[in-house]
Amino acid sequence: MVEVCLPGTGGMLPLENRWTASCWAEFQGAAVLIDCGEGTQLALKKADCKLSRLELLLITHFHADHVAGLPGLLLTLGNYGKKTPLTIAGPAGLGQVVASLMTIAPHLPYPVILEELGEGDRAFDLLGIRFASMHLRHGIPCLGYRMTFKRKPIFNPDKAKRLGVPLRQYKTLHAGQPVVLENGSQILPCMVLDGERRPISLCYCTDTQPFEEISSFAHGADLFVCEGMHGDGGMGEKMREKGHMVFTDSAGLARRAEAKRLWLTHFSPAMKEPEQYLAAARSVFEHTEVGYDGIRTTLGP
């Protein structure tokens, strides 16, 4: 199962009741964070995200509301006792930006590994997760991310019991490794498994104008998290000029992507009550939800 949370849902700057937009995904004890605006470490704590589990930080782009919180987060991780490496991935220029920000957080008790994704769309594997990126349209290099979580096959305890497998060896078989019983017989994983399960996918896109390739990138996602800078459809042209979307733009992309669910995020500070525009978005895509700080769900029963 994958735990997903939006610790913050705001665009441009933090507000008293809304942190800057970020996304937290936790899978098999390891966590991934997308973006790190000002005060993100506080938003994570308030949303009950376990900082000790953070292994990877993905940066969408280098505007302040998506990266200015990096020094504070890095120092907080150190104060929480982190010793294992933290990988940071992002667009071209990541090394220079991170090096500049780390001048005020120079001494960390853990290594920082940088993965610059460059100019082309990239895919890589880490933490048992398949990551894909695509370039969005925002005026500066900006990446959308898709995570595909491969789940273990279905384990059949009745089969294991009939074969005489001790309970303590179930986990080994479920992980795909054979076991040898006390009588010398070997039990293979295929003898106790009931087939593969469909992978879980999470897609995250902000900040960007709407364009059709996003639908292809998000196709079939169990959860599509997408920006909705404003809910008023009449603001559409103005938002697109600034490299953003209104709610109905995002809902249209989710519908064409055949996503299972849509969470809207990255709201304008001028939009005090984004929920009032939910009906318009749902008229385009029924399974739309307006995100809020701390919203959480579990993907994959």
TrEMBL record:
Binding-site residues, Zn(2+) 2: D65, H66, D207, H266
Keywords for this protein: Endonuclease, Hydrolase, Metal-binding, Nuclease, tRNA processing, Zinc
Catalytic activity field: Endonucleolytic cleavage of RNA, removing extra 3' nucleotides from tRNA precursor, generating 3' termini of tRNAs. A 3'-hydroxy group is left at the tRNA terminus and a 5'-phosphoryl group is left at the trailer molecule
Pfam families: Anti-Pycsar_Apyc1 (PF23023)
UniProt cofactor note: Binds 2 Zn(2+) ions.
EC number, as in UniProt: 3.1.26.11
CDD domains: RNaseZ_ZiPD-like_MBL-fold
Active site: D65 (proton acceptor)
Molecular function terms, GO-annotated: 3'-tRNA processing endoribonuclease activity; zinc ion binding
Cofactor: Zn(2+)
Ligand binding (Zn(2+) 1): H61, H63, H138, D207
EC class of the enzyme, as a word: hydrolase
Superkingdom in the source lineage: Bacteria
Quaternary structure, from the entry: Homodimer.
Family designation: Belongs to the RNase Z family.
Role this protein plays: Zinc phosphodiesterase, which displays some tRNA 3'-processing endonuclease activity. Probably involved in tRNA maturation, by removing a 3'-trailer from precursor tRNA.
Record-given protein name: Ribonuclease Z
